[in-house]
Structures are given as structure tokens and as C-alpha cells.
Design goal:
Elements: E1 3-7, E2 12-15, E3 28-33, H1 36-43, E4 47-48, E5 51-52, E6 54-57, E7 121-123, E8 130-132, H2 185-193, E9 200-206, E10 212-221, E11 240-246, E12 255-260, E13 266-271, E14 278-285, E15 287-293, E16 302-312, E17 322-326, E18 329-331, E19 333-336, E20 341-344, E21 353-359
Parallel strand pairs: 2-3
Antiparallel strand pairs: 1-3, 1-6, 4-5, 7-8, 9-21, 10-16, 11-14, 11-16, 12-13, 12-15, 16-20, 17-18, 17-21, 19-20
Length: 360
Amino acid sequence: MAKTLISNISGSHLILPLPYRGILKAGASVCVDAPVETVIANLGGARLVEGIFQFTEVPGANATDYHDDGAATLAPMVAAATVYGAAPAAVGFTSSAGSAASASRSDHTHALPSGVANGFLKLNAAGTAWESVAYGASTAPVGVAAAGTANTPSHSDHVHAHGNQAAGASMHAGASPSVAGFLSAADKTKLDALTAPTVTRMFQSNTPAARSNTSVHASFAGDDAGASFPGPFTNPAIPRNASATFAGAWDGGDITLHGTDQFDAVISEVILANPGNTVDGVKIFKTYTAAEKGAVGLSSDGCSLGTGNKLGLSLALANTDGLLFTDDVAEAVAVDAIHHAFTPATAPNGAHTYKLLVSI
């Protein structure tokens, strides 16, 4: 029996018995043990799943092999190349299985319809032709989030307007009593100029004792071998400033005081030596815990510790403004807003009362 080759000319050859059922890849060939007419009958024209194949006889050493079935002589089939279709049509409007009796090349492309300006396509209202999709107009300002209804795409580099946000710009108007807005430079200046509100408070000090040169500590000799005042220390009845009274030949150096102020904060103060004089301190002492002289002198003249005329207050002052009434008569006063105290023009004597109106 003759061997008949089924081929698309360009592929490799396989030999299979008939009847053959299966898939042939494009480019493959099959050689079967059957006459040509049997091959045609079995393969039904040889249209296979992945290609349209042409037939050709396989010339052999014995040409009579083609006629061993007793049939009339068949004219040899001429080998023919695969028929490919022309360039494909433009993209269609609907899908279709197709009906052409030709193959498509694997690298074919479909052209977009003419007149496409930007790569976006849509069907016309009638559904019969393609048309370009127009881009949207300038974007609207930033607003409330929404899905949108426009039938146009946006450029990828579009920008939404949100006014000029640079320093000093006018994206919003200045604020007014009825409408919110930006703070103007003038309003900022006014705001910065505001200070914390102050409260007026009256302090009354009833008959503080007169100042004393020895009420805190008795005289301590300058030539004493020790540097520390031995004590005891007597605290004032009301917080007030300290004083140091130096004898005429004092040579024991400056005096350093230690204690707490009217707010119970730990403080220290140095009073500079001035032989033959009483020197007042500026800080307010509520208690005394220690005192020492700066050197061991040669003279036995001593230094005693006492109180001055500056009276401490129980609250911190906002400024140095104040109005003092001594025994209910207004008089001058020196207000110390650093150490929160005042010095009346009329010195305490154990009988005067003081009423001070100040800001806290």
C-alpha cells in the first residue's frame, strides 16, 4: 500500500496509521499507510484545528505502489504553500468566528480606525462606526468627593486648582467678625502685643516689727577660726529682706546667707562687707539655715545678722505698679516684681499697718 504524506510543506514529517484522530500543529506533516483517496476521505479535506494543510504524494522507489488497490491511475497532487489571508481589517464592532479559508500570521496587527486622535475609541451612537474620545476640559477646583458623570477621560498630568497657597497669597480672604479666613499681618501684630490679663489684689500687713540689726543672729567675730556662724538663727515673723551689720574693724570678708524664700524655694545671697556699716540684702528670706564669713580675720570685731524694711508678698507680682496705704493714708512705695516684695516709704515700727494694691 502506498504511503501518502499530508503536509503543509514547511514542517517535519510523522508516519501514523489510519484512521488518525488528533491535533496536528501548524508546520507538522503526517505520512499514513493508505491510498491518497482514502486519506482524503478520512481527513475530510484535511482542515485541522491549528492549520489548513495541503496534500502531496510521497514519491517512492516503486511508483506502482500508488495503484495496488486496483483503482484508476491518479494524477499526482502538486505541493502548494499555505495560503495566508490579506492584511486584517480594522477592529470590528462585534466578535465573530470568521469564515475565511486562509490562515493568519502570528504577528499580525489590527489597525485602529482612521481619525483616532488620542488612542481612545468609542462606538458612535448608532453603533456602526468608531470615533475618537475627546479629553475633558480644565479640571474643576477641589470640592466634595464624587464619582463624576463626564464621558471624557482626563490627561494624566492634570492639576486641580486650589488657589495660591504660597506665603502671603490670597487663596482665602482675611478673616472678619462674621466670616472665617486668613489672619492678616496687622491682626497678628495686635495679637502678639497682647499680654496676659492681670488681677488687682490688695495685701495687708499688720504691724510688722521694726528692722533689727541682731534679730537673726548675734555678732560673730571676724578672727574666729571657724567660717560658719554657729547659730542659732531666728526667722522673721513675716518674710523680709536680711541685713548684715559690720563692726568698724571687721576683716572677716563677705557674708553668705542660706535659707528659703516666701515660696519655700531654697535661696542664697552674698552681702558684701562694709566695715562700720549696715548693708541690706535684696532677697526675701522666710527662713535661715546657715551663714558663713569669707575669711578668718585678725580683728575680733564682729558682724551681726538682722532684717531690713522690705516686706515679702505671698503671690508673684505681674509688674511694679502698686498703690500703698500706710495706716490708711496713701504714700509712695517701691514694688519689687523680681523678688515679689515692697518697701514702704514709712518704715515698719511694730505699729504701722500696710495695705498694698498691686497686679498679680
